[in-house]
Amino acid sequence: MLIGNHSMTTHLTARLTWHDTAWNGRLCANPDTNAACMEHEHVRALRRLDVEAPHAGCGLVDLKRVTGYLPPCQRDANAFGEDAYVICHQDPLDGRNLPSVEEDVPAFSVCPTPYRWMLESNFRDICEAENLLIPAPKNPSATWVQEDTRQRQLLERFWGKLEKNRSLVFFYCNRGNAVDDEANRLLVGVSRIAEVANPTYFGQSSAFPGRFPVWSRRVTHHYPREGVRIPYQEYLHRDLDVDGIVCRPPRDLSLPFSYVAEHLSDGQAVSALLAIMTTVERLEADRKAGRGVDGDWAGALAWLDGALDEVWSGRGAYPGIGAMLRALGCSQGIGYHATVLRQLERNGRDPWQHVKDLFEGRRQPEADYAHSLAEAILCWRKMPSRHKLIDLLVRFELTTDQIADILNEDTRKQRGILATNDAILENPYRLFEQDCGTKRSAPVSLEVIDQGMLPEGDAARFRTDPPLPPHDHRRVRATMVAVLQRAASAGDSLLPFPTLVQRAASFFPESRRCAADAETIWSSEDRTFHEQILWFRDAPAPESWKRADADAAADGADDELAELREDLGAAKPTEGERPILRLAALKSVRRWELEIAQVIKKQVGALADLPAEGPDWRALLTVPEEEGGFGEPQTGREHAAIDEKIMALEVLYRNRLSVLTGGAGTGKTSILRIFLRTLRALEGPRSTLLAAPTGKARVKLQTSTGRPAATIHQVLSDAGMLGPNYRILETPEKGKLSYNTVVIDESSMPSVELLAALFRAINTGAIARLIFVGDPCQLPPIGPGRPFIDMLRWLRQAHPGCVADLGTCMRTDGAGGMAVGLQLANGYRDESPPGDDMVISRVARSSTHGDLTLMTWNDHGSLLAKLDEAFAMLNITPGDAKSFDRSLGISEEEWKRSEAWQIISPTRIHPFGTGEINRVVQERYRGRELTNANNANRWPRAMGDQGIVFHDKVMQRVNEPKWLPEGTEGMRFVANGEIGIVTAAWKKKPGEEKGQDKLHVNFSTQPKASYRYLKSEVEESLELAYALTVHKAQGSDFGGVIFVLPRKAQTLSRELLYTALTRYRGRLIVLAEKDTEVLERLRNPALSETARRSTYMFDLLLGDVGTDVPLPPRYRPEGLVHRAEDGTPMRSKSEIIVYEALKGLGLQPLYEQRLCAPTDPDDFCLPDFTIVHGGRTWYWEHLGMLANKGYRDDWEAKEAWYTRHGFRDRLLTSRDHPGGSFGAVYADEIRETARTWILGH
């Protein structure tokens, strides 16, 4: 009797080249701005913008008829198009040049190529997995399968496994997408295959006899009748929130969504469909809320639900049997599962029981598989204690590597899985919760375990255990772990518990919703189980969250409205009682924060036994520059700088814990060099660790101090705390390292995980001086937390004597003032000087002011024209390779000059991103080298996805040791972020079977070392570096910087803008889109990436999720952004006091509104507050550090502007008084001034 339809179906993934009108069979609407498609080598090589741009939006049928041209994306441009056209297939192998062949592409069709199956290196694995008997290659070292017969057999198996009207096709984009800068894979849609075309063959050639197949096949699908496409393009065109509909494949599906065309099993299709369903549910919610696009999303959900039923059935009850058999030694395990065992399942028999009968001798193996099964049978019988674990694992669609590692306790631990066999049996979700993966194997995903624990339909057959409730406590915990992992990746070290529950409820599609009851999690016996790996805490709201009654002293202040609000249902705590907050975090992340806080608190204090009279810092600082000092100060600015450096050095010298902080150009590194040199002279050569978070920062630190430095990862490696795949281990297996002095540079960059690991790797009790050096206004860490910011905030409040602030910038504008570019950057710091807003106005009017130039662009063409103008300012003649080479030191072989200038952008994607800019610059200035690279007979081809050639400027992407000939000067190690020039490119010798093309790179930091890279190493190790993202430029500086600044980008924030503006040493050129709007907008403190995060290292600071906390009206969550009671964000607490005092008088102050000069709209400033009352407009400025000469000079210049343009009689000011870290503000004075001048009484 047949029960259901359990045939194993194979599905297809098909990669699409990004298309701005959604693969509708036409050219892109704006082909010249589609930078995403240029990620693909074939597009870069073959696209002709001279044809595409004049015919933008043209149907490909008409385009070919009129021009004879089709774009390089022709194979997938009709994925969702209704027309039909003919494409031409070219021979993919070099040197063969078989005659091309044409093929029809009807509506809703693509022609993907299964490249993995054509790679010779994968041949053996594919044959074993597919039970294929194909002759061995004649040339095993060849990259691609060469013989026509072997190609045909492999392709016949690949395409033959797909079934029309049954198999699904999943469309995706890789990094070449215009949606998500961080997404390596982006699901685009799914449909059902209607037809897989018959094979086509290239023409005959006497030089290569045989019948060579085209590797791709035309695949037609049933869209729109069956299937769905995610409307990314529509969201982008309408400026909707595209981030909310981003759909990525689960993390364990990287391989199936690679190599252009690949197979997908039923179980993997379940995961992909569930991901798409979740996104379609959001699309329907957006549509209903009026913030989405029209579409039959309900109908799409119904179709997806039906397709899900099918793949659940096809998945079977034991999708892991084949991989399990291979892990036990049966090389034909996958084939045996697909042929023999699935047939048994179709006939209603339990396939795993059949296998166990073989293992235990109750049945003889099938003759065709007897030899292969013998090894697995023997292995099974040697591991009786693991039989129950194997019984469990076959329920999950795991890979062979994953199963092999989990079965072995030693390799299991290397993956981070510490659970015993019994613990895994009791809770299989632990595999997801603990697995960190390896270099060759992805971590086990929640989706894989969840499908095995909660199967649907026929996939649930043969189960003897009771069904798992959707809200089972194990499933609930695993889902909360997944939510908190995502939050940690986004920077949050904890979440309010209501936020966690809400996100967990929406993690799966509605049909598999995990909507556990919050009280059950928090208050039942399940809490003990959850707290094995989660941290839950009832915490009283901090006292600082209670709203200050700023208007208490205001005349006639009326509390009636507040009373009404409370009477209408808001919670009213008892007098003196604080509301209780519920918080949640991953226990590991919470532990990292507490470990860091513990070290900091223990380290705080003065060093004992130091002489009352310390070193003569002034004498050390004022020695001539050639002796390592600054020389005698000549100007007021120089005197101020020396004075604050003396104070800073004394802080570093006297304290066991200190922080040296300041903006660009304030001399942090110079201070450190002098301090370390003096310390060595005073105390002898004690052990010192100079640590930096990145390889490039390490090189910079070592060079600037003249002392050995290490990356934090190198320290962890020395202590034995780095496991496989650079996973950070819990304990130092080689023992803790001891240092007397520890300096951590670029301290804003380490996450709580990395900093806590460093403290576990070293004996913190032996540290005499722990010194953090950094700029808190730069980008926050990649990963959870912001330890440097939180530590600095706590120290300023509790131990201000530990903080050494450098505020005097010694990069000047030639007239003794601060460099203009750095003045502009100061506008994106807290407590910025009063004139920073006027810098925007000055450069808007005159384009160039001091070392800063501002130019604007409107579209891609004008951006490239402005880039030419910027190059001309750097003495590069546009289009002239010789002047370009001189600028980088290529002509004179001065490799240090490769960092003489740098283009930076907020993003990799989009026409203004680094991908497109690198391509354009390379095309314009490396044209000869690119042409040579196409001459395969004489020159090596361009290497890597970006097509790197001779004389390209490149950046190292990973930290790695590199060989150098004996006697060569160099570090024999290249750090992530080092920049250099390709100084040689070599083609492999004729007849050299195992050789490879190679290139050599000389880096600016190691100019005398020429490091070799084989062609196979280039993709992982190098990338083009004419343009870098701001994140990659962090920790570096360059002679000149060209900053491409769009109005909108996924990554834009105050910190990103500040980091970008401080990367230059000599000249800063800002290319802003349209006008200065983005420069003004990002001054808003609420647009801070650092403040968006939620952390609890010393104080509870909630960012974006603060609004999720249920609080009575008199409490407001505190974060790094200062907010008034009505939620208005401001730069400082002083401004909040001014604002609240004015509001208390019934006034309505507006924050930082543009005030233009009467005769010139580009001549403007941004008053702190604008107040309209009684038909008159007043302007209010709050003044802070007037004792600081630079601050005072800036204010006097701004005051003169008010006078010059006739606003002086309406200008009111308040000022800080001495006290606290930055001074005290007296609200009574503010009210008195407002009453006198504005209210008139």
What would your notes on this structure say?
- By secondary structure, this protein is an alpha/beta fold.
- It folds into five domains: about 10-310, no CATH class; about 315-470, no CATH class; about 605-805, P-loop containing nucleotide triphosphate hydrolases (Rossmann fold), CATH 3.40.50; about 820-1085, Rossmann fold, CATH 3.40.50; about 1125-1240, Trna Endonuclease, Chain: A, domain 1 (3-Layer(aba) Sandwich).
- The chain is built from 46 helices and 39 strands.
- Strands 1, 4, 5, 6, 7, 8 and 9 form a seven-stranded mixed sheet that branches. It has a six-stranded parallel sheet with strand order 15-14-16-17-13-18, sandwiched between helices.
- Helix 8 (about 265-290) packs antiparallel against helix 9, helix 10 crosses helix 15 (about 400-405) and helix 33 packs antiparallel against helix 41.
- The radius of gyration is 33 Å and the shape is globular.
